[in-house]
What we know:
The structure holds 2 protein chains of 2 kinds.
Chain A: H1 7-20, E1 26-37, E2 40-44, E3 53-57, E4 62-68, E5 72-78, E6 89-96, E7 98-101, E8 109-110, E9 127-130, H2 153-158, E10 168-171, H3 177-187, E11 193-200, H4 204-216, E12 223-228, H5 234-253, E13 257-263, H6 265-278, H7 292-300, E14 314-322, H8 331-339, E15 342-346, H9 348-352, E16 365-366, H10 375-381, H11 384-394, H12 406-422, H13 432-443, H14 455-469, H15 471-480, H16 485-501
Parallel strand pairs in A: 8-12, 10-14, 10-15, 11-12, 11-13, 13-14
Antiparallel strand pairs in A: 1-2, 1-6, 2-5, 3-4, 3-6, 4-5, 7-9, 15-16
Chain B: E1 12-17, H1 23-37, E2 42-47, E3 54-59, E4 62-67, H2 68-79
Parallel strand pairs in B: 1-2
Antiparallel strand pairs in B: 1-3, 3-4
GO molecular function, one term (chain B): proton-transporting ATP synthase activity, rotational mechanism
InterPro entries (chain B): ATPase_OSCP/d_CS, ATPase_OSCP/dsu
Main location (chain B): membrane
Amino acid sequence: MAHKISTSIIVSDLLKKLDKVKTTIESGYIGNVVEVSDGVAKVSGLDDLSYSEMVEFESGVLGVAINLEEKEVGIVILGNYLDIKEGDRVRGIGRLLSIGVGHELIGRVIDPLGNPLDGKGSIKTEKFYPIEKLAPGVVKRQPVNTPLQTGIKAIDSMIPIGRGQRELIIGDRGTGKTAVTLDTILNQKGKKVICIYIAIGQKSSRVAQIIDLFNRHHAIEHTIVVAANASDPASLQYIAPYTGTAIGEFFMDQGKDALVVYDDLTKHAWAYRQISLILRRPSGREAYPGDIFYLHSRLLERSARMADKYGGGSLTSLPIIETQAGDMSAYIPTNVISITDGQIYFESDLFYAGIRPAINVGLSVSRVGGAAQIKAMKQVTGRLRLDLAQYRDLAAFAQFATDLDEKTKQQIERGARMIELLKQGQFNPMSVEEQVVLFFAGTNGFLDSIPVGRIGDFEEGLLEYFNAQHKDILKKIRTEEKISDDLSRDLNKALESFSKNF
Amino acid sequence: MKTGESVSKLKTAVVKSVVPLTAGQRNEFEMKLRVLFGEEVTITNELDRQLLGGFTVRVGDWFLDASVIRDLQKIKDSLK
């Protein structure tokens, strides 16, 4: 088949493109690499370089200037530093470290510089957002008042998270911290929340498993993954959280809601410590540099709920911190606890006792609290926290149950059943209306006659029953968001008929 | 003295061009560079046919590139 494109079309197309090209004279300072070590280069000659400005080495590798000294500049190398030789030429690019942002990133896996890692082709973005940015001021914000449903019963009932909040997830290794954030991301399907999962210093195999999980549950359609794995240079691990935040800020500025998960900030602190030590900055406690607090505070302060005048969007953060032997009073944990709006504390003891998610409700808190819950949830879980606290106090006497008065015995029995109800499997986030039904059943005594070991079956059966025969009640809870007297009566009737046949 | 530290930073300018500079052009360079750097700059002219046209200036670590080959490279990059 002959091609019918005439040369005149090709020529006019080229001329059109050439018209758009503007050539300007280029001038500036050329630097030379004096020293290269472990991800940091010392460069002389770049007299007009700005702090945090991007530079390009002769080999094409990028860097960012983070130490401006009298005769030299300390540049963190964002890439393979083995390609750089002493004497190599370096030039400033003239713009601050920034990343391409936009809707095109949704569903992709990228590195902290915006390069795709999933093999699905290059990403063309329209806008560039700076990676470092000042957090929105007080006037631009409004209080957090919309819930971010995690789908996890223990969290949505007693430690609710709102859109725009920072909630720290803290605990030892292997206690289920990442699992909770993954379930939260899965639960945002159809809720118009863009999720950004930032993997800092993790095993590549682990990140691959997480991406596979997103693909299987179709969560990748509303998620962006930023990965700086354990074998990536410390510089990339250092900027990864800021990259993810910049991406989230794009959506927030558009009036949308975004969720960012930082997994985890402990490794982020290690990466920054490595860079600071190589730059010979003075070190303090545990060899961390003096501005380790500022490292995290400036990151987490960028999460906010914007005032309606500025779009009304929000950026919610779920930073993860790994503790050693449950020590919440260590340096980095205490730093981040003081920055965030609450923490969810995971304990190994609870995990191995079979209570998963292994959340210690007593030590966990959400400083936003009830403002981030729908009225229906508040109605059914109002006393839950208190009841569980009392149960824990009495738990020691559980062995002597026969010697106690009726009221105490009842409290112990009720507490044990509520704890059983709060257990939840992985990849099983629950909608808020289903949770309300379960808690309604629990706090109104419908579980009291069921043996503790069968609560799980009861829960499964109850939800099946409601989804099959009482979809209208679930819908009412979801739309009205509160339990009116009529709804309460309907719930009671439905629960009674289910309990009879169980 | 470390490698890379410029020896005579602001004294000599190396102007590369395809054809030798005329006296008038030399004068202009000297004047402009004196304004830019705040002190006397002596011009050394080197010939480089690779530039294809225009010129480049190098004063210590500072450079200015107004060569035709750079323009062509920029056009080539933008057409990709």
